[in-house]
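Researcher: Go.
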Amino acid sequence: MNGKRIIIVTGGTLGDWALEVIQENDILVGSDRGALYLIQHGYKPHISLGDFDSVTAEELNLIRSSSLSFIECDPVYKDLTDTEMAFNWALAEQPEQIILLGALGTRFDHSLANVHLLRKGTELGISCSIIDANNQILVMNQSTRIERGRYTHISLLPLSLEVTGITLHGFAYPLHQAKLEIGQSLGISNILQEPEGLIEIRTGLLLVIQSKD
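Model: Structure:
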C-alpha cells in the first residue's frame, strides 16, 4: 500500500464532527450530496461522482465547477448506489485507508449496505471504516488492535455466519476462544479498560462498533 488515505463523503447525516476527521493530505471523494457538503465547507473534491438526484441544478453546477474531476451517471440505469461507486473508485486507488463519512442516516437500507461495503476493502487488506458523530465501525478478518479514543463502548457482531476463536485482551468482559453466530448479542457493549486493546479471531468476519452515547 502507498500510505494514502481516502475520505469518502456521502449524502447521509453529516455535521461539524465530519470536518474534524479530514486531514491535510487526504484524498477527498464527494458522493452525490456529500460533494456539496465538502465544497460548502471550503474543500475541493479530488473527484465527485453519482447521479446527483439530491441536489438542485444550481448546486450541481457548483459541484461540477468546484471538483478536480466529475462523473455523473443516469439514476435510472445505474446498478450501484452512489456510495458504492465512490467506494469502488477508492479501492482501485489501492490506498492504505478508506474512511466513509455521511454513510449512516435515516435510510437504514443504505446504512446497512454501506456497512457491508467495508467487507470488500477488508478482504483486499485495506483498512476501511465508517465514522459518524457517535460511532466508528470497521470489519476485521484478522487480529486487530483497537484504540479507546473518545469511545466508551465496543460491540462485536459477526458479519459472516459465525466468527471463531475470539479472544479479547484489555477488555472489561473477556472472551477466550469464543464463537459468535449471527443473532447472538454476547458481544454487545463491552468496555475497553486500557488505552489499547487486542481482538484476536481465527475465522470469519467480525464487525467492530465503537460508540459513545
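Model: The longest helix spans residues 108-123.
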